[in-house]
Every structure is written in C-alpha cells, then in structure tokens.
Write a structure and sequence with these properties.
The protein is mainly α and 98 residues long. The protein has one domain. It contains four helices and no strands. Helix 1 runs antiparallel to helix 2, helix 1 runs antiparallel to helix 4 and helix 2 packs parallel to helix 4. It starts with a helix and ends with a helix. The model has no long low-confidence stretch (mean pLDDT 95).
Length: 98
C-alpha cells in the first residue's frame, strides 16, 4: 500500500480512537482509554511531521495541549505516553515503508 491509500485508514483510526476515549481525563481508573488517546495523538504527531497536518485538521480537532501535564508519573499518564510512543512509531513505520 502507498501512503495515500493508508492515510484515510489512519484518519479513520484516530477519529475512532478519539470517539472511544472521549472523557478520558475524568477516567483515571481506565488506563486503556488513556493509552488509546495517547496512541491517536502519537499518530497525529507523526502525520503532522510527514506533511499531513491539513488532512488531520480536516478530520478532527486534536487536543489543544498535552493532556498528561501533571499525570506523567501516574499509571494512566504512563499508559498515555506509551500509547503516544507506539502510535508515533507505528505510523512512521507504515507510512515510510509504503
């Protein structure tokens, strides 16, 4: 697959993850929500750096600021950070090899 074929799938993924993780800031009891939001934001970060910021902006409104401020050392903050790192890494892998 080429990048232009993968892009709509990645945009759909981040929209789905944003929908599924809505309200995650109030759910410190559910680290999976935090991971999912982090994953989506990691994908968004990578897409921005790959030149697809316009596409992301047309698909959804990303979080305005880093949502884990003051949560970094807590389990849910760590889940978010791990999700972010994996989303970023895997997006680069699939987009740069396509």
């Amino acid at each position: 697959m080429n990048a232009e074929t993968l892009l709509p799938q990645l945009l759909e993924l981040i929209c789905d993850l944003y929908e599924d993780s809505r309200g995650f800031l109030d759910r410190t009891d559910d680290a999976q929500l935090w991971y999912n939001r982090g994953y989506a934001n990691g994908v968004i970060h990578a897409l921005h750096h790959l030149g697809y910021a316009r596409h992301v902006a047309s698909a959804l409104e990303p979080d305005g600021q880093d949502p884990i401020t003051d949560h970094e050392a807590l389990p849910w903050g760590k889940a978010y950070r791990h999700g972010w790192e994996m989303g970023r890494k895997e997006t680069y892998e699939v987009m740069e090899t396509s």
